[in-house]
Design goal:
The complex is a heterodimer of chains A (about 220) and B (about 230). Chain A has about 220 residues and is of the alpha/beta class. Chain A has eight helices and ten strands. In chain A, the strands form three sheets. A six-stranded mixed beta sheet of chain A has the order 6-7-8-5-9-10, with helices on both faces. A two-stranded antiparallel sheet of chain A has the order 1-4. Chain B is an all-alpha fold. Chain B is globular. The chains are: A alpha/beta (about 220), B mainly alpha (about 230).
């Protein structure tokens, strides 16, 4: 999947400059970087939720699924929310079971806790097959156990569907656990991109090294 | 005040013909005007709240101005348009319930629009982003957005109804407060107080206050549900 180069400017301030690239099916790409580095802007533009300055980012030949940073729970039951993603009740039940939210199925989704809402949103997205899936900090509100369950589900979903998955995360450990490749954003620019073993272990760019050192990695 | 109050309460329960007529005209006018304002204001409010387009800011300023329009100014405009020298005199609507409804629609619709716009502007971006992320169609997204607004729609309607029932300036000017024809609760209170007939005025005031209280309780309950 070819992604065209794009930029994003707010009031004459360039917040993102992406040189373009290619996403391969069946691969997980971790997007890392400090706050304000442009990670979420990149994810939102890629998902079509935010317009870039110019050009189309990708052709409509492939389907894109997106889980925003702030998960919205519609005023209906958790099950009904999940069924918005797809019409298969058996699949919904299976996902709820896997993410341990089956007991919340009939509860109003807008009354769930942050972690429960995030799991519901993840299940909702994974009801359908997409060519490209973008998850913006999907486990930020989850505890360690549910984070682990979610990561297992993400890995299984990619394996089963063969989609390309972009995972925006603040957790470098998570990036190391699930990603095949990593993209490091620094001050709105893609500074380094490559296999996990390189970017997250032995990066080339000094800024990336500094970033990893800051996290004690 | 004890005596007029006691008499007023007695009057309410005595099924007084004039009182019943005033209540009937008020109900007819308020229900019609609030429903029409809702039908007009709802789509406009959702549109202004959910969409971004050139001129939206100007429309919002215009709506806020209309929200604060003094009822007597609205009454004056309608009076001039429909009186014997106005361009619509041939319609013979002056001093009828119909023109009272029309004037109230002009006064109340901006309230519905403003109410809906504020709420929808807050919720629409998240709904749109989530729906887009799930690959839902525009129609499905719109239906979901409306579903998210259900309590707000009821709340907006109740506010419109409360404003309609309590309004006096415009309806007295265009309706003329004609007994047994266009006299509504608010105009009747003024009329009977001016005549020194406090009993009917107090009785109507009590009914008006009770209705206002009920509407406000309903709005509070809905707002509590909205606040999650």
């Amino acid at each position: 999947m070819k992604i065209a180069a794009f930029t994003k400017t707010y009031e004459e301030r360039r917040v993102l400059d992406f040189p373009g690239g290619e996403l391969l099916p069946g691969r997980i790409y971790a997007v890392i970087g400090a706050n304000g580095s442009g990670k979420s802007t990149f994810a939102r533009i890629l998902a079509g939720a935010l317009a870039p300055d110019k050009k189309t980012v990708h052709p409509d030949r492939f389907t894109v699924g997106y889980m925003p940073q702030r998960n919205y729970a519609f005023r209906m039951s958790a099950r009904a929310n999940i069924l918005l993603g797809g019409k298969d009740p058996a699949r919904a039940a299976e996902l709820m079971e896997q993410l341990r939210i089956a007991h919340l199925a009939d509860k109003r989704a807008d009354r769930l806790s942050g972690g429960e809402t995030a799991r519901m949103a993840l299940a909702r997205l994974m009801m359908r097959r997409f060519d490209l899936v973008i998850l913006d900090e999907p486990t930020a509100a989850m505890d360690m156990e549910t984070t682990s369950l979610s990561e297992e589900l993400i890995l299984r979903y990619v394996k089963e569907t063969g989609c390309a998955l972009v995972l925006v995360t603040h957790s470098l450990q998570q990036a190391r656990r699930v990603a095949d490749e990593a993209l490091y954003f620094h001050k709105g620019a893609l500074l380094e991109q490559g296999p996990r073993e390189v970017v997250l272990v032995d990066p080339v760019q000094p800024e990336t090294r500094q970033f990893l050192e800051f996290y004690g990695l | 005040m004890g005596s007029p109050l006691a008499k007023a309460i007695q009057l309410i329960f005595s099924a007084n013909a004039e009182l019943l007529n005033i209540l009937s005209v008020t109900a007819k006018m308020s229900l019609r005007s609030s429903v029409l304002a809702l039908l007009l204001g709802l789509p406009l409010g959702i549109w202004l709240g959910a969409c971004r387009f050139p001129g939206r800011g100007a429309l919002l300023v215009l709506n806020r101005t209309l929200m604060g329009m003094p009822p007597v100014v609205c009454g004056l405009i309608f009076y001039m348009l429909f009186s014997g020298v106005g361009p619509f005199r041939h319609l013979k609507l002056l001093f009828t319930v119909d023109i009272m409804v029309m004037a109230q629609v002009v006064l109340i619709t901006p309230i519905v629009i403003g109410n809906m716009e504020t709420y929808v502007a807050g919720v629409a971006p998240a709904v749109r982003e989530t729906a887009r992320g799930l690959g839902l169609s525009r129609l499905r997204t719109f239906v979901l957005l409306c579903n998210e607004c259900v309590y707000q729609i009821i709340s907006a309607y109740l506010m419109a109804f409360a404003r309609s029932i309590a309004e006096v300036g415009a309806v007295s000017m265009v309706g003329g407060a004609i007994s047994w024809k266009t006299n509504v609760m608010t105009t009747a209170i003024m009329q009977h107080t001016n005549r020194g007939n406090f009993t009917l005025g107090v009785a109507l005031g009590l009914i008006l206050l009770t209705l206002s209280l009920l509407v406000n309780i309903l709005v509070s309950v809905l707002q509590r549900r909205l606040s999650r």
